[in-house]
Design goal:
Distance between the termini: 212 Å
Strand content: 5-15%
Shape: rod-shaped
Strand order of the largest sheet: 1-2
Mean pLDDT: 79
Radius of gyration: 67 Å
Largest sheet: 2 strands, antiparallel
Helix content: over 70%
Number of helices: 6
């Protein structure tokens, strides 16, 4: 029983001596100027441990507790401010995302409208429209070229046929003229032959 009482007495004497010293010693400046971790390190380095008890002056403990509570309050306030700012930024981000989505939809609609042409109530992409129009234009040009070549060939054939017909008519007229002259000459010769024949026959002169 004596040893525990002795320990308690020694502890009480140590606390009493520290209490007496605290009344005569000022609070170190570290507890007023340094951060909480630095204050705790300073307290750990400048206090002793006896029988798993650390002797800390009451005024220093109260000041340290006050500093910790103030630091926690500031941290809590900072955290609340950060949460509020985070919520505000999230709302702003949501608003920006909605605006961006609306802008993208408008841009997509404008791009689709810009890149398409409405024909007979049907939207056709400009690339498809250009392909169709160039194809139709190519077909029309090809038909025009083919028509021109056909017309040129037909005209050449017509001129050639007309020339051949003219030549044939001229040849026919020449042949007709020649035939007529030949017929007249043959008739004349035949007449002369008959005349000669009659002249050579006896009694023809008296008859004449």
């Amino acid at each position: 029983m004596k040893y525990p009482l002795l320990k308690i007495s020694l502890i009480a004497i140590a606390f009493l001596s520290l209490s007496l010293k605290s009344n005569s010693q000022p609070i170190p400046e570290e507890y007023r100027s340094q951060s909480i971790p630095e204050q705790l390190n300073f307290t750990q380095e400048h206090t002793r441990v006896y029988e798993n008890f650390r002797a800390v002056r009451e005024d220093i403990f109260q000041l340290l507790a006050k500093n910790i509570n103030d630091s926690l309050a500031r941290s809590k306030k900072t955290i609340n401010n950060l949460i509020t700012e985070k919520n505000r930024l999230n709302n702003r981000i949501d608003s920006i995302n909605q605006s961006l989505a609306s802008t993208n939809n408008n841009l997509e609609s404008m791009t689709r409208t810009k890149n398409s042409i409405r024909i007979l109530g049907i939207e056709i992409h400009k690339a498809t429209y250009n392909t169709i129009m160039w194809t139709i234009l190519g077909i029309l040009v090809a038909m025009l070229v083919i028509g021109y070549l056909t017309f040129k060939q037909n005209r050449t054939t017509t001129l050639k046929t007309r020339k051949e017909l003219t030549d044939l008519l001229k040849e026919f007229e020449d042949y007709k003229q020649k035939t007529r002259l030949e017929k007249e000459r043959t008739t004349m010769e035949h007449f002369n032959e008959i005349k000669k024949l009659k002249a050579s026959m006896p009694g023809s002169r008296s008859q004449l």
